[in-house]
Write a structure and sequence with these properties.
Number of strands: 2
Largest sheet: 2 strands, antiparallel
Order of helices and strands: HHHHEHEH
Structural class: mainly alpha
Distance between the termini: 24 Å
Shape: globular
Radius of gyration: 15 Å
Number of helices: 6
Amino acid sequence: MSSLPCLLERRAEKCFCPELIQVKTDPGLFRELTSGGNMRASLRQKIVEICNSKIEKKGPSVGLSFYAFFANKNDDPELLMEAADWWIMTHKLDHFEKALKIREMVEAGK
């Protein structure tokens, strides 16, 4: 499964690769490889930085959505989908959550 991370990053829809077929037919394995603890370190760091900035400016009760971690342009759709998957599918979070809660979750490796 050495080529699997590359395939998952590209979200290849039409691939006859046996490893990808196995992942696509096993929802648990797909989630384990594409979300949760496997969120890329750069995204985790960015989330913590944005949360810290929002908390510093507006206080500990400030809320945000996963869109807060991205510019108002779609220049990295894979990264956006990674954050959306973590937020919506993995943790079933509401659209707006407290920045403090999100920071704690990310720092805890959830």
